[in-house]
Amino acid sequence: MVLGLTLAVRRSFDNRHSEEQRQRQAISLVRERERLRFAGDLHDILGHSLTVITMKNELAQRLLSVGKIDEAGEQSAQTLGCPARRKRTYGGSLRPRAVCPRKKK
């Protein structure tokens, strides 16, 4: 009878341990998938931003070549601030607040 009880307790412990291990593996898989999704999204955003920078730079060069210095300056100013702002906005919106709270300025 004691042996049977010991085996039952051992089996219960093993089952609980196996379940906890499965849960840890599932959580790890979810985290990895989220990292990959985030990396892909960030890659797309930065790729788009670099394309916009290139195109706006070409526009600014054309404006400079025809003497429109003020318009070229405006294009450059708009272009340089926008991608960094979008990256910070996107990255900040995905940051878990409890784990990585934003620093107060």
Verbal overview:
The chain is mainly alpha-helical and 105 residues long. 86% of the residues lie in helices and 0% in strands. It has helices spanning 2-65, 69-94. The protein is rod-shaped. The chain starts with a helix and ends in an 11-residue tail after the last helix. Mean pLDDT is 76; it is low at 97-102.
List keywords for this structure.
single chain; mainly alpha; rod-shaped; 2 helices; 105 residues
Helix run count: 2
Strand content: under 5%
How are helices and strands ordered from N to C?
A: HH
For the record, give the distance between the C-alpha atoms at the N and C termini, rounded to a whole number.
Answer: 67 Å
Query: How many strand units?
Result: 0
State the low-pLDDT regions, or none.
Answer: 97-102
Structural class: mainly alpha
Largest beta-sheet details: none
Radius of gyration of CA atoms, rounded to a whole number: 27 Å
Helix content: over 70%
What characteristic shape results from the CA principal axes? rod-shaped
What would the average pLDDT be, to the nearest integer? 76
